[in-house]
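Reopening closed ticket. The problem is back. First fold of the pair:
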Amino acid sequence: MAVETAAFTAVVALLITAAASQTPPTAYSNHTVGGPAGWFFNATKNISATNYSSWAASQTFNLGDFLIFRTNSNQTVIQTYNLTTFQSCSFDDASDNDTVQYNGGDTDFNKPLIIQVPLTIKGSNYFFSDANDGVQCQEGMAFEIQVNTGLGLPPSLNQPPPPPYATPPDSNSAQMPPLMIPQTKDNGSSKTIANSRRELFFIAVMVLLLLC
């Protein structure tokens, strides 16, 4: 009887814990990747600054949240929804619609960077650094997260992309539209007035001749 009571108590405790963990969020969150360690790779020891998979497992991610990568130009930030791309530690064969390169490396090393990545697609999201020909990813700079619905996408992220930028025409080659000069329709009124004056003149002359 005591064993059954203990088992029942354990089940109830698990249910309460699960219900508490599923409490809906009340606001969007920013997650600093790696916590205080940031997003870095120690090239001397050939290891990542922290265990990013363990860090990700300790977080809860929802649509509309942001990942904040505090890093520098020695690392890259690749986001993909393609498990094959993630496992290969390279986006060379990725499709345009399933992988985003937020930072592709820089010839100016050690340049501080803060990269903000919005979470806009529910489900599995994968992140890695492909610097050093994928060595950083292979040595621990990679993690997977599960994005939940949460509050849903905020209006600022739930908008269609803007139209592509179009270069304005060269001012030297631009042509002004032809100037249209309105045409006045001749209804013959000016001719009518002129003829009437002539007729009045002849009538006046004839009257004078008769009076003389």
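Second fold of the pair, where the issue appears:
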Amino acid sequence: MSGDIRSYRGIEPQLGEHVYVDQSAVIVGDVQLGEHSSVWPLVAIRGDVNFVRIGARTNVQDNSVLHVSRISEGNPDGHPLLIGDDVTVGHHVMLHGCSIGNRVLIGMSAVIMDGAVVEDDVIIGAGSLVPPGKTLKSGYLYVGSPVKEARPLSQAERNFLPQSANNYVQLKEDYLLHVQQIS
């Protein structure tokens, strides 16, 4: 099953093996999705003025928007969007030209802006705003608008990060087997 997958200026999105893209999702241009990743209903991923790279076993949940910043005189590389492995992008998240490490959970309705860097093993609380250029260090929970370091992650939370991603790998496998479009 695949959504609305579109080329832009002759560049087509590249989907890894065993990827699920809901039929209502839109993926445009220079976008690469790693194996076993999933893109859920009403997600928009635009790799038009820069590129998007999404790692393995990463899930992008309903109503999220993923975009990039263009190359300009003041920013010669622009800001691509880079997302690592085993990342959970919650419902209604906005990711714009930022870099997300591995084993990160981004809470519902969070916004992460251009040039922000989220290191490995981080949880970002629902509704948080990560301002442009901010770095979130590995091993912490961050909350608020603008985001602030709340506390170190517990071992249970660290263990949950890959488990969260794996839950979506299992769910997308079920969807690949059992979801059928009804006309």
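Update: turned out to be a display glitch only; the data is intact. The chain has a mean pLDDT of 96. The first strand starts at residue 4 and ends at 6. Please close again.
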